[in-house]
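Supplementary material to the annual report.
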Amino acid sequence: MSGSSVVEGEAQAEVQAGAQAAVLPVSRRTLHDEVVGRIRDMIIEGHLPTGSRIHEGQLGARLGISRTPLREALKFLASEGLIDLVPGRGAVVRTLTRVDVRDLLEVLTALESSAGRSACARASEAEIAGVRRLHDAMMEFYARRDRLEYYKLNQAIHSAIAALSGNAYLAQVHETIQQRLRRIRFLGNQGPEKWSAAVAEHEAMIAALEARDGEALATVLTEHLRRTWDRVIDVVEP
Amino acid sequence: MSGSSVVEGEAQAEVQAGAQAAVLPVSRRTLHDEVVGRIRDMIIEGHLPTGSRIHEGQLGARLGISRTPLREALKFLASEGLIDLVPGRGAVVRTLTRVDVRDLLEVLTALESSAGRSACARASEAEIAGVRRLHDAMMEFYARRDRLEYYKLNQAIHSAIAALSGNAYLAQVHETIQQRLRRIRFLGNQGPEKWSAAVAEHEAMIAALEARDGEALATVLTEHLRRTWDRVIDVVEP
DNA sequence: CGAGCTTCGATTGCGTTCAATCATCCTGTA
DNA sequence: TACAGGATGATTGAACGCAATCGAAGCTCG
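Predicted assembly:
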Protein backbone atom coordinates (compact mmCIF):
# COMPACT_ATOMS: atom_id res chain seq x y z
CA MET A 1 0.00 0.00 0.00
CA SER A 2 1.07 3.57 -0.49
CA GLY A 3 1.88 5.00 2.88
CA SER A 4 1.10 8.50 1.72
CA SER A 5 -0.30 10.89 4.28
CA VAL A 6 -3.10 13.28 3.60
CA VAL A 7 -0.97 16.32 4.09
CA GLU A 8 0.74 15.90 0.74
CA GLY A 9 -2.41 16.41 -1.28
CA GLU A 10 -3.56 19.84 -2.31
CA ALA A 11 -6.94 21.11 -1.23
CA GLN A 12 -9.11 20.67 -4.28
CA ALA A 13 -12.53 20.99 -2.73
CA GLU A 14 -12.52 24.62 -1.74
CA VAL A 15 -15.21 25.62 -4.19
CA GLN A 16 -18.21 25.46 -1.96
CA ALA A 17 -16.31 26.44 1.11
CA GLY A 18 -15.49 29.71 -0.57
CA ALA A 19 -19.15 30.58 -0.90
CA GLN A 20 -19.65 31.21 2.79
CA ALA A 21 -16.12 32.24 3.65
CA ALA A 22 -17.01 35.90 3.50
CA VAL A 23 -16.96 36.10 7.26
CA LEU A 24 -13.59 34.39 7.45
CA PRO A 25 -11.42 36.35 5.05
CA VAL A 26 -8.94 33.58 4.49
CA SER A 27 -9.88 30.05 5.45
CA ARG A 28 -6.81 29.63 7.58
CA ARG A 29 -6.28 25.93 7.37
CA THR A 30 -8.38 23.09 6.23
CA LEU A 31 -8.40 20.63 9.06
CA HIS A 32 -10.25 17.58 8.01
CA ASP A 33 -12.03 19.00 4.99
CA GLU A 34 -8.89 17.74 3.38
CA VAL A 35 -10.13 14.25 4.08
CA VAL A 36 -13.61 15.06 2.84
CA GLY A 37 -12.22 16.36 -0.42
CA ARG A 38 -9.92 13.43 -0.76
CA ILE A 39 -12.61 10.81 -0.28
CA ARG A 40 -14.99 12.72 -2.49
CA ASP A 41 -12.42 12.63 -5.25
CA MET A 42 -11.77 8.94 -4.67
CA ILE A 43 -15.46 8.24 -5.13
CA ILE A 44 -15.90 10.45 -8.17
CA GLU A 45 -12.71 9.21 -9.82
CA GLY A 46 -13.84 5.66 -9.29
CA HIS A 47 -11.10 4.61 -6.89
CA LEU A 48 -13.85 3.68 -4.50
CA PRO A 49 -16.22 1.71 -6.71
CA THR A 50 -19.93 2.38 -6.36
CA GLY A 51 -21.78 -0.11 -4.25
CA SER A 52 -18.70 -1.14 -2.33
CA ARG A 53 -18.45 -0.90 1.41
CA ILE A 54 -15.95 1.43 2.93
CA HIS A 55 -13.70 -0.26 5.44
CA GLU A 56 -12.93 2.36 8.03
CA GLY A 57 -9.72 0.91 9.39
CA GLN A 58 -8.36 0.17 5.93
CA LEU A 59 -9.20 3.54 4.39
CA GLY A 60 -8.01 5.32 7.49
CA ALA A 61 -4.67 3.59 7.22
CA ARG A 62 -4.39 4.51 3.53
CA LEU A 63 -5.04 8.15 4.34
CA GLY A 64 -2.76 8.13 7.34
CA ILE A 65 -5.44 9.14 9.82
CA SER A 66 -7.31 7.41 12.57
CA ARG A 67 -10.90 6.30 12.41
CA THR A 68 -12.36 9.25 14.29
CA PRO A 69 -11.79 12.03 11.74
CA LEU A 70 -12.49 9.56 8.97
CA ARG A 71 -15.90 8.76 10.39
CA GLU A 72 -16.65 12.46 10.70
CA ALA A 73 -15.76 12.93 7.06
CA LEU A 74 -18.02 10.03 6.10
CA LYS A 75 -20.92 11.65 7.92
CA PHE A 76 -20.30 14.82 5.98
CA LEU A 77 -20.27 12.99 2.67
CA ALA A 78 -23.39 11.10 3.61
CA SER A 79 -25.18 14.40 3.93
CA GLU A 80 -24.13 15.22 0.39
CA GLY A 81 -25.59 11.96 -0.81
CA LEU A 82 -22.38 10.39 -2.04
CA ILE A 83 -22.54 7.53 0.41
CA ASP A 84 -25.22 5.75 2.37
CA LEU A 85 -24.84 5.00 6.06
CA VAL A 86 -26.29 1.60 6.81
CA PRO A 87 -26.81 1.23 10.56
CA GLY A 88 -24.91 -1.89 11.43
CA ARG A 89 -22.77 -2.14 8.33
CA GLY A 90 -21.05 1.18 7.89
CA ALA A 91 -20.76 3.28 4.77
CA VAL A 92 -21.38 2.12 1.22
CA VAL A 93 -20.63 4.16 -1.88
CA ARG A 94 -23.89 5.19 -3.39
CA THR A 95 -24.68 3.96 -6.88
CA LEU A 96 -26.28 6.44 -9.23
CA THR A 97 -29.24 4.76 -10.84
CA ARG A 98 -30.80 6.02 -14.01
CA VAL A 99 -33.53 7.68 -12.00
CA ASP A 100 -30.96 9.38 -9.78
CA VAL A 101 -29.19 10.84 -12.79
CA ARG A 102 -32.44 12.03 -14.28
CA ASP A 103 -33.41 13.66 -11.00
CA LEU A 104 -30.06 15.35 -10.60
CA LEU A 105 -30.12 16.64 -14.16
CA GLU A 106 -33.62 17.97 -13.65
CA VAL A 107 -32.60 19.95 -10.59
CA LEU A 108 -29.49 21.10 -12.40
CA THR A 109 -31.70 22.36 -15.18
CA ALA A 110 -33.90 24.29 -12.80
CA LEU A 111 -30.87 25.85 -11.15
CA GLU A 112 -29.03 26.74 -14.32
CA SER A 113 -32.11 28.23 -15.94
CA SER A 114 -32.65 30.44 -12.95
CA ALA A 115 -28.98 31.31 -12.80
CA GLY A 116 -28.92 32.12 -16.49
CA ARG A 117 -31.76 34.58 -16.16
CA SER A 118 -30.13 36.25 -13.19
CA ALA A 119 -26.75 36.33 -14.87
CA CYS A 120 -28.09 38.10 -17.94
CA ALA A 121 -29.73 40.67 -15.71
CA ARG A 122 -26.93 41.45 -13.32
CA ALA A 123 -23.53 40.26 -14.57
CA SER A 124 -20.97 42.86 -15.52
CA GLU A 125 -19.48 43.04 -18.97
CA ALA A 126 -16.18 41.93 -17.55
CA GLU A 127 -17.73 38.86 -16.01
CA ILE A 128 -19.40 37.91 -19.26
CA ALA A 129 -16.13 38.45 -21.06
CA GLY A 130 -14.56 36.07 -18.58
CA VAL A 131 -17.00 33.34 -19.51
CA ARG A 132 -16.32 34.04 -23.16
CA ARG A 133 -12.62 33.51 -22.52
CA LEU A 134 -13.35 30.19 -20.87
CA HIS A 135 -15.42 29.26 -23.89
CA ASP A 136 -12.70 30.21 -26.34
CA ALA A 137 -10.13 28.25 -24.37
CA MET A 138 -12.49 25.30 -24.37
CA MET A 139 -12.81 25.52 -28.14
CA GLU A 140 -9.05 25.34 -28.40
CA PHE A 141 -9.07 22.02 -26.60
CA TYR A 142 -11.95 20.88 -28.77
CA ALA A 143 -9.91 21.66 -31.86
CA ARG A 144 -7.10 19.55 -30.45
CA ARG A 145 -9.54 16.85 -29.38
CA ASP A 146 -8.23 17.07 -25.82
CA ARG A 147 -11.24 15.60 -24.15
CA LEU A 148 -10.10 15.85 -20.55
CA GLU A 149 -9.13 19.52 -20.67
CA TYR A 150 -12.19 20.31 -22.76
CA TYR A 151 -14.38 18.75 -20.16
CA LYS A 152 -12.76 20.60 -17.30
CA LEU A 153 -13.47 23.92 -18.97
CA ASN A 154 -16.94 22.78 -19.87
CA GLN A 155 -17.70 22.31 -16.20
CA ALA A 156 -15.97 25.57 -15.34
CA ILE A 157 -18.30 27.42 -17.72
CA HIS A 158 -21.39 25.95 -16.15
CA SER A 159 -20.05 26.77 -12.71
CA ALA A 160 -19.25 30.29 -13.85
CA ILE A 161 -22.80 30.87 -15.04
CA ALA A 162 -24.09 29.56 -11.73
CA ALA A 163 -21.75 31.94 -9.93
CA LEU A 164 -22.79 34.86 -12.12
CA SER A 165 -26.28 34.54 -10.72
CA GLY A 166 -24.94 36.28 -7.64
CA ASN A 167 -26.57 33.58 -5.58
CA ALA A 168 -23.94 31.83 -3.47
CA TYR A 169 -26.25 29.10 -2.28
CA LEU A 170 -27.37 28.31 -5.79
CA ALA A 171 -23.76 28.12 -6.89
CA GLN A 172 -22.96 25.78 -4.04
CA VAL A 173 -25.80 23.34 -4.71
CA HIS A 174 -24.99 23.51 -8.39
CA GLU A 175 -21.39 22.61 -7.69
CA THR A 176 -22.39 19.67 -5.51
CA ILE A 177 -24.64 18.24 -8.20
CA GLN A 178 -22.10 18.82 -10.92
CA GLN A 179 -19.47 16.96 -8.93
CA ARG A 180 -21.75 14.01 -8.45
CA LEU A 181 -22.47 13.86 -12.18
CA ARG A 182 -18.87 14.47 -13.19
CA ARG A 183 -17.88 10.92 -13.93
CA ILE A 184 -21.05 10.01 -15.80
CA ARG A 185 -21.10 13.12 -17.93
CA PHE A 186 -17.48 12.62 -18.85
CA LEU A 187 -18.13 9.07 -19.95
CA GLY A 188 -21.25 10.15 -21.81
CA ASN A 189 -19.54 12.55 -24.16
CA GLN A 190 -17.94 9.74 -26.16
CA GLY A 191 -18.34 9.83 -29.91
CA PRO A 192 -17.57 12.71 -32.25
CA GLU A 193 -21.14 13.50 -33.25
CA LYS A 194 -22.27 13.78 -29.64
CA TRP A 195 -19.30 15.94 -28.89
CA SER A 196 -19.84 18.34 -31.78
CA ALA A 197 -23.51 18.68 -30.87
CA ALA A 198 -22.57 19.62 -27.33
CA VAL A 199 -20.14 22.17 -28.67
CA ALA A 200 -22.81 23.76 -30.83
CA GLU A 201 -25.08 24.05 -27.83
CA HIS A 202 -22.33 25.77 -25.93
CA GLU A 203 -21.89 28.28 -28.74
CA ALA A 204 -25.56 29.17 -28.49
CA MET A 205 -25.20 29.49 -24.74
CA ILE A 206 -22.44 32.04 -24.94
CA ALA A 207 -24.28 33.97 -27.64
CA ALA A 208 -27.37 34.27 -25.48
CA LEU A 209 -25.31 35.34 -22.51
CA GLU A 210 -23.52 38.04 -24.48
CA ALA A 211 -26.83 39.24 -25.85
CA ARG A 212 -28.10 39.28 -22.25
CA ASP A 213 -31.16 37.42 -23.39
CA GLY A 214 -32.12 35.64 -20.20
CA GLU A 215 -35.04 33.71 -21.62
CA ALA A 216 -32.99 32.48 -24.56
CA LEU A 217 -30.18 31.43 -22.25
CA ALA A 218 -32.57 29.55 -20.01
CA THR A 219 -34.02 27.78 -23.01
CA VAL A 220 -30.62 26.86 -24.39
CA LEU A 221 -29.45 25.57 -21.01
CA THR A 222 -32.59 23.51 -20.58
CA GLU A 223 -32.23 22.03 -24.02
CA HIS A 224 -28.53 21.41 -23.46
CA LEU A 225 -29.20 19.45 -20.30
CA ARG A 226 -32.07 17.55 -21.88
CA ARG A 227 -29.68 16.39 -24.58
CA THR A 228 -27.07 15.64 -21.96
CA TRP A 229 -29.57 13.18 -20.58
CA ASP A 230 -29.80 11.54 -24.01
CA ARG A 231 -26.04 11.41 -24.20
CA VAL A 232 -25.47 9.76 -20.84
CA ILE A 233 -28.46 7.46 -20.72
CA ASP A 234 -26.48 4.57 -22.18
CA VAL A 235 -23.64 4.93 -19.72
CA VAL A 236 -25.62 4.53 -16.53
CA GLU A 237 -26.99 1.19 -15.43
CA PRO A 238 -30.56 0.16 -14.38
CA MET B 1 -30.49 20.58 33.87
CA SER B 2 -32.94 18.11 32.39
CA GLY B 3 -31.25 14.76 32.44
CA SER B 4 -33.30 13.54 29.53
CA SER B 5 -31.65 11.07 27.21
CA VAL B 6 -32.02 11.17 23.46
CA VAL B 7 -33.83 7.89 23.32
CA GLU B 8 -37.02 9.37 24.67
CA GLY B 9 -37.57 11.67 21.72
CA GLU B 10 -39.39 10.53 18.62
CA ALA B 11 -37.65 10.59 15.29
CA GLN B 12 -39.00 13.67 13.59
CA ALA B 13 -36.50 14.10 10.81
CA GLU B 14 -37.29 11.09 8.69
CA VAL B 15 -38.55 13.07 5.75
CA GLN B 16 -35.48 13.16 3.62
CA ALA B 17 -34.24 9.82 4.81
CA GLY B 18 -37.35 8.25 3.35
CA ALA B 19 -36.48 9.43 -0.12
CA GLN B 20 -33.64 7.00 -0.58
CA ALA B 21 -34.86 4.26 1.68
CA ALA B 22 -36.21 2.24 -1.21
CA VAL B 23 -33.37 -0.23 -0.87
CA LEU B 24 -33.94 -0.59 2.86
CA PRO B 25 -37.60 -1.41 3.21
CA VAL B 26 -37.79 -0.40 6.81
CA SER B 27 -35.15 1.91 8.24
CA ARG B 28 -34.32 -0.40 11.08
CA ARG B 29 -33.19 1.99 13.73
CA THR B 30 -31.98 5.50 13.64
CA LEU B 31 -28.77 5.46 15.57
CA HIS B 32 -27.40 8.95 15.63
CA ASP B 33 -29.74 10.52 13.09
CA GLU B 34 -31.75 10.97 16.21
CA VAL B 35 -29.12 13.40 17.39
CA VAL B 36 -28.98 15.13 14.01
CA GLY B 37 -32.72 15.65 14.04
CA ARG B 38 -32.66 16.80 17.60
CA ILE B 39 -29.98 19.42 17.10
CA ARG B 40 -31.55 20.54 13.85
CA ASP B 41 -34.79 21.15 15.69
CA MET B 42 -32.99 22.96 18.49
CA ILE B 43 -31.46 25.32 15.96
CA ILE B 44 -34.65 25.90 14.00
CA GLU B 45 -36.75 26.32 17.12
CA GLY B 46 -34.28 28.85 18.43
CA HIS B 47 -33.11 26.91 21.46
CA LEU B 48 -29.63 27.27 20.04
CA PRO B 49 -29.50 30.96 19.15
CA THR B 50 -27.94 31.91 15.86
CA GLY B 51 -24.38 33.10 16.09
CA SER B 52 -23.72 31.25 19.32
CA ARG B 53 -20.98 28.73 19.70
CA ILE B 54 -21.88 25.14 20.40
CA HIS B 55 -20.11 23.79 23.43
CA GLU B 56 -19.56 20.13 22.69
CA GLY B 57 -19.21 18.87 26.22
CA GLN B 58 -22.17 20.86 27.45
CA LEU B 59 -24.53 19.94 24.62
CA GLY B 60 -23.39 16.35 24.77
CA ALA B 61 -24.26 16.21 28.44
CA ARG B 62 -27.68 17.72 27.76
CA LEU B 63 -28.40 15.10 25.13
CA GLY B 64 -27.00 12.29 27.22
CA ILE B 65 -24.34 11.28 24.71
CA SER B 66 -20.60 11.58 24.55
CA ARG B 67 -18.73 14.03 22.38
CA THR B 68 -17.91 11.57 19.61
CA PRO B 69 -21.38 10.99 18.13
CA LEU B 70 -22.20 14.61 18.79
CA ARG B 71 -19.27 15.78 16.71
CA GLU B 72 -20.32 13.46 13.91
CA ALA B 73 -23.78 14.95 13.99
CA LEU B 74 -22.32 18.43 13.84
CA LYS B 75 -20.34 17.54 10.74
CA PHE B 76 -23.55 16.32 9.16
CA LEU B 77 -25.37 19.53 9.97
CA ALA B 78 -22.45 21.59 8.72
CA SER B 79 -22.90 19.98 5.33
CA GLU B 80 -26.51 21.15 5.37
CA GLY B 81 -25.37 24.67 6.09
CA LEU B 82 -27.03 25.05 9.46
CA ILE B 83 -23.76 25.53 11.28
CA ASP B 84 -20.28 26.69 10.40
CA LEU B 85 -17.22 24.78 11.51
CA VAL B 86 -14.48 27.19 12.43
CA PRO B 87 -11.15 25.35 12.57
CA GLY B 88 -9.90 26.05 16.04
CA ARG B 89 -13.13 27.20 17.59
CA GLY B 90 -15.68 24.49 16.91
CA ALA B 91 -19.22 24.90 15.63
CA VAL B 92 -21.22 28.11 15.53
CA VAL B 93 -24.89 28.32 14.62
CA ARG B 94 -25.12 30.00 11.28
CA THR B 95 -26.97 33.30 11.11
CA LEU B 96 -29.22 33.81 8.14
CA THR B 97 -28.46 37.19 6.70
CA ARG B 98 -30.84 38.98 4.41
CA VAL B 99 -28.79 37.85 1.44
CA ASP B 100 -28.91 34.26 2.62
CA VAL B 101 -32.68 34.34 2.86
CA ARG B 102 -32.98 35.89 -0.56
CA ASP B 103 -30.69 33.25 -2.03
CA LEU B 104 -32.56 30.42 -0.37
CA LEU B 105 -35.91 31.75 -1.54
CA GLU B 106 -34.59 32.11 -5.06
CA VAL B 107 -33.48 28.50 -5.16
CA LEU B 108 -36.76 27.48 -3.59
CA THR B 109 -38.55 29.32 -6.36
CA ALA B 110 -36.58 27.54 -9.05
CA LEU B 111 -37.26 24.18 -7.46
CA GLU B 112 -40.95 24.72 -6.84
CA SER B 113 -41.54 26.08 -10.32
CA SER B 114 -39.92 23.03 -11.82
CA ALA B 115 -41.77 20.76 -9.44
CA GLY B 116 -45.07 22.44 -10.22
CA ARG B 117 -44.66 21.87 -13.93
CA SER B 118 -43.75 18.23 -13.39
CA ALA B 119 -46.58 17.73 -10.94
CA CYS B 120 -49.19 19.03 -13.35
CA ALA B 121 -47.86 16.70 -16.02
CA ARG B 122 -47.53 13.49 -14.06
CA ALA B 123 -49.45 13.54 -10.78
CA SER B 124 -52.46 11.27 -10.43
CA GLU B 125 -55.89 12.61 -9.68
CA ALA B 126 -55.71 11.01 -6.27
CA GLU B 127 -52.47 12.77 -5.48
CA ILE B 128 -53.88 16.13 -6.51
CA ALA B 129 -56.94 15.44 -4.43
CA GLY B 130 -54.62 14.79 -1.52
CA VAL B 131 -53.12 18.25 -1.86
CA ARG B 132 -56.59 19.71 -2.06
CA ARG B 133 -57.45 18.04 1.21
CA LEU B 134 -54.36 19.54 2.80
CA HIS B 135 -55.44 22.91 1.50
CA ASP B 136 -58.96 22.58 2.82
CA ALA B 137 -57.67 21.54 6.22
CA MET B 138 -55.35 24.52 6.17
CA MET B 139 -58.27 26.81 5.43
CA GLU B 140 -60.01 25.42 8.48
CA PHE B 141 -57.14 26.54 10.64
CA TYR B 142 -57.08 29.88 8.88
CA ALA B 143 -60.74 30.35 9.73
CA ARG B 144 -59.92 29.63 13.37
CA ARG B 145 -56.83 31.83 13.19
CA ASP B 146 -54.70 28.94 14.42
CA ARG B 147 -51.43 30.23 13.09
CA LEU B 148 -49.21 27.36 14.15
CA GLU B 149 -51.33 24.58 12.66
CA TYR B 150 -52.01 26.69 9.59
CA TYR B 151 -48.33 27.10 9.04
CA LYS B 152 -47.58 23.41 9.46
CA LEU B 153 -50.07 22.55 6.72
CA ASN B 154 -48.78 25.39 4.60
CA GLN B 155 -45.36 23.79 4.63
CA ALA B 156 -46.84 20.37 4.07
CA ILE B 157 -48.53 21.63 0.90
CA HIS B 158 -45.32 23.00 -0.51
CA SER B 159 -43.56 19.77 0.36
CA ALA B 160 -46.36 17.79 -1.25
CA ILE B 161 -46.00 19.70 -4.51
CA ALA B 162 -42.28 19.10 -4.43
CA ALA B 163 -42.91 15.41 -3.87
CA LEU B 164 -45.48 15.27 -6.67
CA SER B 165 -42.72 16.16 -9.10
CA GLY B 166 -41.64 12.55 -8.84
CA ASN B 167 -38.11 13.80 -8.27
CA ALA B 168 -36.85 12.49 -4.95
CA TYR B 169 -33.71 14.59 -4.99
CA LEU B 170 -35.63 17.75 -5.71
CA ALA B 171 -37.97 16.95 -2.85
CA GLN B 172 -35.03 16.40 -0.54
CA VAL B 173 -33.28 19.67 -1.35
CA HIS B 174 -36.60 21.46 -1.14
CA GLU B 175 -37.20 20.04 2.30
CA THR B 176 -33.77 21.10 3.49
CA ILE B 177 -34.29 24.66 2.35
CA GLN B 178 -37.78 24.82 3.76
CA GLN B 179 -36.54 23.67 7.14
CA ARG B 180 -33.88 26.34 7.17
CA LEU B 181 -36.43 29.02 6.38
CA ARG B 182 -39.05 27.66 8.75
CA ARG B 183 -38.48 30.02 11.62
CA ILE B 184 -38.19 33.14 9.52
CA ARG B 185 -41.22 32.41 7.39
CA PHE B 186 -43.27 31.72 10.46
CA LEU B 187 -42.30 35.00 12.02
CA GLY B 188 -42.90 36.80 8.72
CA ASN B 189 -46.54 35.89 8.42
CA GLN B 190 -47.57 38.25 11.19
CA GLY B 191 -50.34 40.67 10.48
CA PRO B 192 -53.82 39.85 9.12
CA GLU B 193 -53.41 41.51 5.74
CA LYS B 194 -50.19 39.62 5.02
CA TRP B 195 -51.84 36.44 6.09
CA SER B 196 -54.93 36.86 3.95
CA ALA B 197 -52.80 37.69 0.94
CA ALA B 198 -50.83 34.51 1.43
CA VAL B 199 -54.06 32.56 1.66
CA ALA B 200 -55.30 34.01 -1.59
CA GLU B 201 -52.09 32.99 -3.31
CA HIS B 202 -52.54 29.49 -2.01
CA GLU B 203 -56.04 29.37 -3.46
CA ALA B 204 -54.66 30.23 -6.87
CA MET B 205 -52.01 27.58 -6.43
CA ILE B 206 -54.48 24.81 -5.84
CA ALA B 207 -56.65 25.98 -8.70
CA ALA B 208 -53.75 25.84 -11.14
CA LEU B 209 -52.77 22.42 -9.89
CA GLU B 210 -56.28 21.03 -10.29
CA ALA B 211 -56.47 22.54 -13.77
CA ARG B 212 -53.09 20.87 -14.47
CA ASP B 213 -51.86 24.16 -15.85
CA GLY B 214 -48.14 23.79 -15.23
CA GLU B 215 -47.17 27.24 -16.48
CA ALA B 216 -49.82 28.93 -14.39
CA LEU B 217 -48.77 26.97 -11.32
CA ALA B 218 -45.13 27.89 -11.86
CA THR B 219 -46.09 31.53 -12.19
CA VAL B 220 -48.23 31.49 -9.07
CA LEU B 221 -45.52 29.76 -7.06
CA THR B 222 -42.93 32.24 -8.24
CA GLU B 223 -45.14 35.14 -7.36
CA HIS B 224 -46.02 33.59 -4.02
CA LEU B 225 -42.37 33.26 -3.05
CA ARG B 226 -41.54 36.73 -4.30
CA ARG B 227 -44.20 38.08 -1.98
CA THR B 228 -42.94 35.84 0.77
CA TRP B 229 -39.69 37.72 0.42
CA ASP B 230 -41.56 40.97 0.93
CA ARG B 231 -43.28 39.53 3.97
CA VAL B 232 -40.15 38.34 5.71
CA ILE B 233 -37.76 41.09 4.76
CA ASP B 234 -38.50 43.02 7.94
CA VAL B 235 -37.94 40.05 10.19
CA VAL B 236 -34.41 39.22 9.16
CA GLU B 237 -31.50 41.37 10.17
CA PRO B 238 -28.71 42.93 8.01
C1' DC C 1 -1.50 54.68 33.18
C1' DG C 2 -1.63 52.08 28.92
C1' DA C 3 0.12 48.63 25.75
C1' DG C 4 2.42 44.45 24.68
C1' DC C 5 3.91 40.02 26.15
C1' DT C 6 3.50 35.84 28.75
C1' DT C 7 1.27 32.39 31.06
C1' DC C 8 -2.77 29.77 32.26
C1' DG C 9 -7.34 27.77 31.82
C1' DA C 10 -10.66 25.95 28.74
C1' DT C 11 -12.02 23.69 24.57
C1' DT C 12 -11.30 21.44 20.46
C1' DG C 13 -8.95 17.77 17.50
C1' DC C 14 -7.62 13.25 17.20
C1' DG C 15 -5.78 8.74 18.67
C1' DT C 16 -6.86 4.79 21.40
C1' DT C 17 -9.77 1.52 23.68
C1' DC C 18 -13.94 -1.03 25.02
C1' DA C 19 -18.62 -2.79 24.07
C1' DA C 20 -22.22 -4.21 20.70
C1' DT C 21 -23.45 -6.02 16.37
C1' DC C 22 -22.91 -8.49 12.08
C1' DA C 23 -21.06 -12.15 9.10
C1' DT C 24 -19.08 -16.50 8.57
C1' DC C 25 -17.86 -21.04 9.66
C1' DC C 26 -18.18 -25.15 12.18
C1' DT C 27 -20.68 -28.75 14.31
C1' DG C 28 -24.47 -31.60 15.44
C1' DT C 29 -28.75 -33.71 14.19
C1' DA C 30 -32.62 -35.27 11.35
C1' DT D 1 -26.39 -35.02 2.91
C1' DA D 2 -28.71 -30.85 4.00
C1' DC D 3 -30.27 -27.66 7.28
C1' DA D 4 -30.37 -25.46 11.72
C1' DG D 5 -28.11 -23.75 15.60
C1' DG D 6 -24.39 -21.88 18.02
C1' DA D 7 -19.74 -20.06 18.47
C1' DT D 8 -15.98 -17.19 16.89
C1' DG D 9 -13.71 -13.55 14.36
C1' DA D 10 -14.21 -9.14 12.31
C1' DT D 11 -16.13 -4.54 12.03
C1' DT D 12 -18.76 -0.83 13.52
C1' DG D 13 -20.50 2.39 17.29
C1' DA D 14 -19.46 4.98 21.20
C1' DA D 15 -16.66 6.52 25.30
C1' DC D 16 -12.37 7.99 27.13
C1' DG D 17 -8.01 10.38 27.43
C1' DC D 18 -4.15 13.06 25.83
C1' DA D 19 -2.00 16.65 23.06
C1' DA D 20 -2.51 21.00 20.47
C1' DT D 21 -4.66 25.30 19.99
C1' DC D 22 -7.45 29.27 21.09
C1' DG D 23 -9.04 32.95 24.20
C1' DA D 24 -8.32 35.64 28.05
C1' DA D 25 -6.52 37.31 32.24
C1' DG D 26 -2.47 38.90 34.65
C1' DC D 27 2.01 40.83 34.70
C1' DT D 28 5.75 43.64 33.28
C1' DC D 29 7.79 47.42 31.00
C1' DG D 30 7.81 51.83 28.65
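Chain B has two domains: 6-93, 98-232.
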